[in-house]
Structure formats: C-alpha cells, structure tokens
Design goal:
Chain lengths: ~550, ~280, ~130
C-alpha cells in the first residue's frame, strides 16, 4: 500500500519529479528496480522483437506472392517462418502484455509501491535479453527451420551443418525465456496475494489483475514443463540420450505431449492478459460499470485451468491414440464457454452506454470481432473429423492468427494507447491513432480471411510452392500483410511522435476509476504521493469531467 | 463499501507512520511490515518449489512411460546400480535435511553459533553426497553403462554379449575417463570384483537397454545440478549468518533456502527406490 | 507428533519453530523407513512370488517419507493454508500430465510393436508397395 514516504523527493512547490526524471543516465535504467522502468524496458524490447518478427512476416508474404521462387530460396523461406513464429511467440506475445503493460500497471492498480520482488523482476528482464540473444545467434548461425515447435525427430537429427548449433541456440533461448516468464508470473502471484491494500478484496480488483493472475498461474505451472522439454532436446542433441529418438527406442510422439502440455496453456498466456486489457478498455470508455464482474473474473481462472486439459488437440493426426483424441476433442469444446462468457459480458456492458469512440476503444471493438472469429473457428478444429481434413492447412494458420494477432496484438495496441498517457505523461494524437486501428483491422482481415478459404480448399501450411489456383488468395493475403504492417508503423509513429510533441497528459484522461488513474501522469518513483482511495474500480458515477485539466476528477 | 475502505486505509496509513522508523536493515522499502515481507518471500519460495516439481515432473512422466512399456529394460539395468551407495546417499541427504531444519530453528531463535554449525554440517553432507555420486558415475563410465548413444557395456560378466559395434568416440570417452580416474579406482574395482560382490547385470542386455542409463543419468544428473545449486545457496546463507544478519525478526532467506534443500531431498526420496530398488 | 502441545511455546516472531525433539523423531522415522524399504526390496528380490508388490510398496514408503519431510522439515503443517494449497495443488497437474500421456502412450504402444515386428524383414519402400496392391 502506498503512503506518504518521508524520503520521497517530491515537494508540492517544485516541479513534480516522476519516475522518468527521478534519475538519469544509462545505469539508472539498466540497474533500476522500479517496476515502471522495467516495464518500459520490456515495452521497448518486446516492440523491437515485434518489428523483427513483423519483418520476417512481410518477407514471407512477399515470397508467397507468386508460386516458386519470388525473392528468397526455399531454405531461407523455411528459416523465415521458423524465426517469425519463434520470435513472435517467445519474444513478443508471451511477454508483451504481462511483462510490459502488466509490470507497469499491476503494482499501481494495487496501490503498491512496487512488485513483491523487484530484483527478481529485473532479473526476469535480463533473462529475456539473454534468451533474445540466443535467438539472434540462431538467426546468425542460419539453418533453423524446425518451425517454432521444434518437433522431434526433425529437431534431434544430426545434420552436420550450422543447423545443429542453431537448434541448440534456439532451444537454449526458449529455456532461458521460460525462466524469465516463470519469474514474472511468480512475482505477480505473490504481489497480488500479499500486497493488496486494505479495503481491496479479491472481488474489488480490476479485471486486468484477475487476468494477469490467471496468466501467472499458467506461467508458473506450465512453463517448467517446456523448460525440461527443451532441455531434453539439448541433451538429446549433445549426448544422444534417445528419449525422443526412435533410433534408441525413444518416442517422438512423447515429445509432442511434453511440448503441448506447456504450449496449449501458453496460448492462454498470450490471450488472457488481452482479455484483461479489453475488460478495462470497454468499461472505461463506456463509462459504465462492467457487466458481470464475477463471471469475467471466474472465467479467466476457468480458462487457465481448463487450458491444461486439452493439449492433445494438437496431436489428432500425429499418431495419438483414438481414445486420447476423443477425450481431448470433447474437453476442448468446453473452453468455448468461459470465452463466450467474456464476449457476452462485454457486449452487455456496451449496451445503451454513452461510448467514447477513441482509438483504444476501436482496438477493443476490433478485438471482439476478430477474437470471436478466431474462437469459433477453433471449434471447427477441435472437432475430430473436421480437423483431420483441416490439419496443417492455412485454415489453422488463419485460426491462430485471428486469436493471437487479432486478439493479443490488437489488445496490446489498445492497452498501449489506453495507458500511454500514464506511461509517458503525454497525450497521443487521436486521429493517426484511429487510422492505425482501422489499418490494423482491415489489413488483418485482408491477410487472414483468404487463408481460411485457402485452407478449406487444401492449401497446406509452411509450403514454399503452391498451385496456381491459390495465387489470388495469396496475393490478397500479401497485400493485407503490407496494410497490417503499415498500421503497426502508424501506431508506433503516433506514440513516438507524442513523446516529443504530445500535450501533457492529465491524471485521468479517459475517466477510469481504478487506482492507476489516481496517481499522477507519469507516476512518481513510488507511485502515489498520498494513499489512494480504494473504492469500486468500476464505479464511474464518482467522476466528473474537469474542463480546466481536460481530465476527470474524483468527486467523492 | 468505499467509506469503510477509506477508514481502513487511513488506519493502516496512520499505523504505518509509526512503524516506519522501525524498519530493520533488511526490510525492503515497499513492504509495510517484516511479517508482510516474510510471508511474501515464503509464498514466493513455495511457488518456486511448485515450479521445480513441474520441472522434474517431465522426467518422472518419462520414467513412468518407459517403466510400464518396457519393464525388462529396468529389470536388467537396475542391477548395474549399487544399492549400498544409493542407501548411503539417502541417509546422508536425510541427515542434511535434519541439520538444515535445525539450522532454520536456530536462525528463528537467534542462535548464531548453532546456525553456523548446522549450515556447515549441511554443506558437508552435500559434499559427501556428491562424492558418492562421483564414485558411482565413475563405475558406470568404466563399464560403459552409459546413456543410449554411448551405451556399450564392457563388463567382465561373461553373459553380457559383446557389443556389435564400438564407435571410436565411445572408446575415446571411456579411455579419457579411465585415465582421469587413474589406477586407484581400477585397482579398487579389481579388489571389489575379486571379493565376489560385483552386482553387474545378469544376461545379455535387452534391446534399447541404454534407455535405462539415459533415465538414470538425466534424473540423477539434474538432481546433482540442484544439489550444486543448493551448495551455492547454503554458502551464501552461511556467509550472511557469520556476519550476523539473521535473527528472530529476519530469517527469511535461511527458511527459503531450507525449503529448497528439502525439495532436493524430496526428489531423491523418490529417485532412490525408482532407480535402485524397484525391479 | 508429541510436540503439538509444546509448539505454542515455540511460536516465535514470524513463524513456527520446530522443536528439536520433533525434528529428531521425524529423522529417526525417515531412517527406519529407508532401512525398511531396502530390506523389503531385498526380500522381494529373493522371493519371486511377491514380485508384483515391489513397485507399490516402494512408492508407498517413499510417499510416506516425502509427506513427513514436507509436513515437518518444511513446516508445511504449521504454515499458511495458501502455501499448503498451492503445493499440494501442483501435484494434481503432475498427475494430469502423467495420466493423459500414459493413457495415450499405452494405447499406441501396440502400433509401435506391430510396426517393429514388420520392419526388420521388409525395408520401408518395399513394404509400402504390396500394401497398395490389393
Ligand atoms: Cu491448443
């Protein structure tokens, strides 16, 4: 709980000191224990990873403009899709919302001074950096073409080229990134459990915290299994223990069990924080109490736990037994229920509300549209017999991009615009931000909707070459990728521009009622000059628009 | 609700104002009380142990699957392990757990000398454990009881079939290990088998027998890495105890390292019957 | 443990301190159980008819030992219920992981055996040809 701290350098007479101006120099950032600075460093780092992964995606789509060779060789193409997947999943989506936005917002939303273990938090960030370096070395070594899933025996075969080292570098990277993720999750769980202020019970927390809590639960329970799995791959390659290698009586299908025991729950590491962001965006911009608070909160936990029971739906065609497939298929359907609970509650919140159509809200709307499509096409894939037809086609590619890009990426941008005034202390300009939201939405659909059609017509994923009848779909998809890329660039440019030219942000520009809108923008070192008032974080009747500061103020 | 909450907040705030100057030297600024800091650290440590359990679970699942599908590999392979060494290590580790728990008690009661003494004993036990492990590993290397790729039993047991092909790499590994060990252990081994206590496997190895040693080396190897990490952690605690950092109001780190050490013991409690006893 | 009555006196500062007598008792039980499990294993090795009991007995004793370590050496018995919950809860996930994987692996094991039985006699390309013929 934040309180007046006598050691704080703040004094009401002088220019307020905030976390950005508290201290200067490279080391003051590199060695910082402040969750806000660590959050900002994550934001920069994951954004760079996003741009890198995005560049790979643009190259991939350009290559697919025409059948056969267009700009790169088939080997380069294989490496491009592997690195696109691995970078986007491990370096961007998984840490994106929880580690960047979560790190910044979580303690402030709790009215706390910092996360429970600030040193561990900084260590997590450096683990991320080391993991990223391993990925980079895999990129420079060239030859990594296993796909981001590192399926055995392809990933354990001896090639006697630089591919051998590239696979070890990449799996080592995943191992280290796994620990970054585990420690972030552990930190968040402890912070939420032990550092809630007096008066804030579990059901008084903002839904973003429920979402990060559920995410953290998965991070701690599932990621260690990924760590041991990739460790076994490394040991297999270096020593030949034969665990996943049929030559020595090992079992490659077992690898897929190990991998998906983590990687299906990991899908919820990617999407649950996005749900949390959307709950905040919708409620704040509708100026209306979130509908069905408890249902949304419980559905996050339900998704986190049910997510552990469905991993076999990735293995319907990989030699998994019939019984296991039937059971996994049946349980997979159940995930649709808590996901739908969220969508319907958000819709109910919007019903008859006076909505502010700003850029974050537009991103939230596009999230709801895209995630619904992504979720519903998931039902096609969890249906056993349909999946046998659709497996490993572009339908699958389109499905998970609708969830991960249409879901997580739009929520990331939405959340970033929403909290940007708090993070940077500057208001971004609304018009280009809205343009970016439109471009992302249109570009995204243009990229991935044709892929659904291609997939149902039998275009396999990860292919370098294709039949001429698919060319028009591929070309639409490529144009869409360019538009999507442009949208992302406009979004980042808008934010960067605001840092230099933006108006000073008021404490509460959107009219949010949770605690982060009670501390100054940007917050001081220990977040609150005075103990914040803990109230209902979705009660907007307490707020009044103040013309003078162009923000909202608390009336009672 | 909000009025009530405000009242509570102010109360906490007021009481905090009093407590503020009583912060111990090791209380982090973002915690209100030593109790909050201790509870946070302890919960964090338990979550870390949860993470460790799931980390090891991969190997346990792997063991279960091979054990059920290919019991003959285990029945043959486990005879190459010496139960006596395993049992000695079990007792050593249990004893180190006792001394660690005792060290935590001393820290809680502010008995510095006891704390230092029991930490040193715990470290010594960890050292003995690794020493015994080294002797065991050496014997495996000597007889070619290695993981799948290098599995190449060269036992003096006449029942063991001559391996069909010996890669040059394996020869190099075995040679290197033998030269590292020197004459001493070779002589010891000769004496050992001369006395008729040799527990080498009986009969030719079943197909893929090397997988047993893959399991043996990965499980005990990962466990040994954890023991080494434990030694590092206990040494850190020992240095801080000598400096007199710990007392009844601040002993968290001793407790957390203790929990970690007990988990290492816990894993071994299962590894011992799984690898050495079950047939 | 006989220490439950005494442990209120040991309530000290931030957490419960284990009495020395309790620690020594637990350690003694652990050593006895270790000796027991080794002798049972030796007995079963000598008597083939009890072979099937080896695994369940050894794992049962190991579990008792583990529970003793967790409850007393790790103080979990006197710890917060949250720490109890999270630690025992995680074994549900281990169990889940093990059961699903095991069930599947047992199911497809026959496929592997059938494949292995055919494999040595006929190399893969030759095997594919007659299969397609009818
Ligand atoms: Cu999945």
């Amino acid at each position: 709980m934040a309180t007046v701290d006598t050691t704080t350098t703040y004094s009401p007479d002088s220019k307020p000191v905030n976390y950005l101006t508290q201290s200067h120099g490279f080391l003051s950032w590199a060695m910082t224990l402040d969750h806000k600075r660590i959050g900002v460093m994550y934001l920069v780092a994951t954004s760079v990873a996003f741009l890198l992964g995005g560049t790979f995606a643009i190259l991939l789509r350009t290559e697919l403009w025409a059948p056969g060779h267009t700009i790169v060789s088939h080997d380069t193409y294989n490496q491009l899709f592997t690195l696109h997947g691995a970078v986007m999943v491990f370096l961007f989506i998984i840490p994106g919302i929880p580690a960047a936005l979560g790190n910044f917002m979580l303690p402030i939303m709790l009215g706390a001074k910092d996360v429970a273990f600030p040193r561990l938090n900084l260590a997590s960030f450096y683990f991320w950096c080391v993991g990223a370096l391993f990925f980079l070395s895999a990129l420079l070594l060239t030859g990594l073409d296993t796909g981001w899933t590192f399926y055995t025996p392809y990933s354990t075969t001896e090639y006697n080229t630089s591919k051998d080292e590239a696979i070890i570098a990449a799996t080592m990277g995943v191992f280290v990134l796994g620990f970054s993720s585990i420690f972030t999750g552990l930190n968040f769980l402890v912070t939420i459990h032990t550092m809630r202020p007096p008066g804030m019970g579990w059901f008084h927390m903002p839904l973003f915290l429920w979402a990060t809590y559920s995410t953290a639960l998965i991070q701690v329970l599932a990621t260690p299994v990924l760590a041991i799995t990739v460790l076994l791959i490394i040991v297999e390659r270096l020593m030949g223990i034969g665990i996943f290698n049929p030559v020595y009586g090992g079992d490659p299908v077992l690898y897929q069990h190990f991998f998906w025991f983590y990687s299906h729950p990991a899908v919820y590491i990617m999407i649950l924080p996005a749900f949390g962001v959307i709950s905040e965006l919708i409620s704040v911009n509708c100026h209306r109490h979130i509908f069905g608070y408890r249902f949304i909160a419980y559905s996050s936990v339900a998704i986190a736990l049910l997510g552990f029971l469905v991993w076999g739906h990735h293995m319907f065609t990989s030699g998994q037994s019939k019984i296991a497939s039937v059971v996994f298929s049946a349980i997979t359907f159940s995930i649709a229920i808590p996901s739908a609970v969220k969508i319907f509650n958000w819709l109910a919140t919007m019903y008859k509300a006076s909505i502010s159509f700003n850029a974050p809200f537009l991103y939230a709307l596009s999230f709801m549209f895209l995630f619904t499509i992504g979720g519903l096409t998931g039902l096609f894939l969890s249906t056993l017999n349909t999946d046998v037809h659709l497996h490993d086609t572009y339908f699958v590619v389109a499905h998970f991009h609708y969830v991960m890009v249409g879901g997580s990426l739009t929520a990331f941008f939405g959340g970033l615009f929403h909290w940007w005034p708090k993070i940077s202390g500057k208001m971004y300009s609304e018009f280009p931000a809205k343009v970016s939201a439109f471009l992302v939405f249109i570009g995204f659909n243009l990229t991935f909707f044709p892929q659904f059609v291609m997939g149902t017509r039998g275009m396999p994923r990860r292919y370098y070459n294709y039949l001429p009848e698919f060319q028009s779909f591929h070309q639409w998809s490529t144009i869409g990728a360019y538009v999507l890329g442009l949208g992302a660039i406009v979004a980042f440019a808008t934010l960067v521009h605001s840092m230099f030219r933006g108006k000073k942000a008021p404490t509460n520009p959107w009219g949010g009622a949770s605690l982060e809108w009670q501390c100054p923008s940007p917050p001081p070192l220990e977040n609150f000059h005075e103990a914040p008032t803990v109230g209902d974080c979705y009660d907007y009747d307490r707020l009044r628009y103040d013309e003078k500061t162009e923000g909202y103020v608390m009336t009672k | 609700m909000s009025d009530h909450a405000v009242a509570e907040t102010t109360d906490a705030h007021a009481s905090h104002g009093h407590g503020h100057h009583e912060h111990g030297p090791f209380q982090a600024h973002h915690f209100e009380t030593p109790k909050q800091q201790f509870d946070a650290g302890k919960f964090g440590m338990w979550l870390f142990l949860v993470q460790e359990v799931l980390f090891f679970s991969g190997l346990f699942v792997f063991y279960a699957i091979y054990r059920i599908n290919h019991p003959e590999i285990f029945e043959w392979g486990h005879q190459a392990l010496d139960t006596t060494y395993g049992a000695i290590n079990t007792i050593v580790l249990l004893f180190s757990s006792l001394t660690m728990a005792w060290a935590v008690r001393c820290a809680q009661l502010g008995k510095k000398n006891g704390l230092v003494f029991f930490l040193v004993v715990t470290l010594a036990c960890a050292g003995i454990f690794l020493g015994v492990k080294y002797v065991e590993y050496s014997a495996k290397f000597e007889h070619g009881y290695l993981w799948a790729r290098y599995f190449n039993p060269t036992s003096d047991n006449p029942h063991v079939a001559e391996p069909p092909s010996i890669s040059k790499e394996v020869d190099k590994v075995v040679e290197k290990v033998e030269s590292d060990l020197g004459d001493h252990s070779a002589a010891a081994h000769d004496a050992h088998s001369a006395e008729g206590h040799h527990h080498g496997p009986v009969g030719p190895p079943p197909p893929n027998a090397g997988v047993f040693f893959s399991i043996y080396f990965t499980m005990t190897g990962l466990h040994a890495i954890h023991v080494i990490a434990g030694i590092v952690a206990i040494t850190w605690i020992l240095v801080r105890s000598v400096k007199g950092h710990f007392g009844p109001m601040y002993f968290g780190p001793v407790d957390y390292v203790g929990l970690y050490w007990h988990l290492v013991d816990l894993v071994w409690i299962y590894l011992f019957p799984m690898l050495y006893l079950i047939e | 443990m006989s220490s439950t009555a005494a442990h209120h006196d040991e309530e000290h500062g931030l957490a419960h301190a284990m009495p020395v007598r309790a620690l020594l008792t637990v350690f003694t039980i652990l050593v006895v159980l270790t000796v027991l499990t080794v002798s049972i294993s030796n007995f079963i090795r000598a008597h083939e008819q009890f072979h099937a009991w080896g695994v369940p007995i050894a794992m049962f004793i190991a579990t008792i030992k583990a529970i003793l370590v967790v409850l007393y050496f790790m103080h979990l018995r006197y710890d917060k219920s949250l720490n109890n919950l999270i630690f025992f809860f995680c074994f549900a996930f281990v169990f889940l992981f093990m059961i699903f994987t095991l069930v599947d692996s047992l199911q497809y094991q026959t496929d592997i055996e059938n494949y292995a039985a055919v494999q040595p006699e006929t190399p893969a390309p030759a095997a594919a040809a007659p299969a397609k013929a009818p």
